[in-house]
From TrEMBL:
Keywords: Membrane, Transmembrane, Transmembrane helix. The chain crosses the membrane at residues 25-48, 68-87, 94-113, 133-153. Residues 14-164 form the HPP transmembrane region domain. This is CBS-domain-containing membrane protein. It comes from Devosia subaequoris. Pfam families: TM_HPP. It comes from the Bacteria. Coiled coil: none annotated. The keyword RNA-binding does not apply. InterPro entries: HPP, TM_HPP.
Length: 174
């Protein structure tokens, strides 16, 4: 295989025991199912597409910076604020989407709270026109549920993990 093609085809994720993958998959499915159930019961639009990838990183890659609670909450907050502000200023959805996704990315990178699924919130908002209060409440509740489930389920076997990751100072002390 040509070296350039090989670089594009190389996998960088380490191999894991199939039981760890089964646990991650089951936890993700359970979390999304619970959010869907709560959405059906409450009538709130809790089941938003970006929450699927959020669940994936929380349960499948909990050691990733993108899976940490600060990144999740701050990322969605930044995405929601940008979308709400932009909707009140720019009437054309195409340009609004372009500007918002770029702005969300810039702010998340600058604040070191990158959570890629949160960059989809402006796109979701512009296509669905969810009001600001509902969007804030829904995303906060869904993220709270996902992070809480992550904190609980990662303590179960197989491969018990610390989630969220400890502070750097805590790691240095131990």
């Amino acid at each position: 295989m040509h070296p350039l093609i090989a670089r594009f085809m190389a996998r960088h994720e380490p191999r894991k025991d199939w039981r760890v993958h089964a646990k991650s998959t089951t936890a993700t499915a359970a979390a999304v199912t619970l959010i869907g159930y709560l959405s059906a019961v409450t009538g709130l639009p809790l089941l938003l597409a970006p929450l699927g990838p959020t669940a994936l990183v929380i349960f499948g890659q909990p050691e990733s910076p993108n899976a940490q609670p600060i990144n999740i909450f701050a990322g969605y907050f930044i995405g929601t604020v940008a979308a709400v502000l932009a909707m009140s200023v720019v009437p054309e959805p195409f340009w609004l989407a372009t500007l918002c996704v770029g702005l969300v990315m810039l702010v998340m990178l600058a604040l070191r709270v990158t959570h890629p699924p949160a960059a989809a919130i402006p796109l979701l908002t512009l296509t669905g026109r969810v009001d600001a209060v509902t969007l804030f409440v829904v995303l906060f509740l869904a993220c709270l549920l996902l992070v809480a489930m992550g904190a609980i389920l990662h303590r179960l076997p197989p491969q018990r993990r610390r989630y969220p990751l400890p502070l750097a100072e805590e790691v240095e002390k131990s």
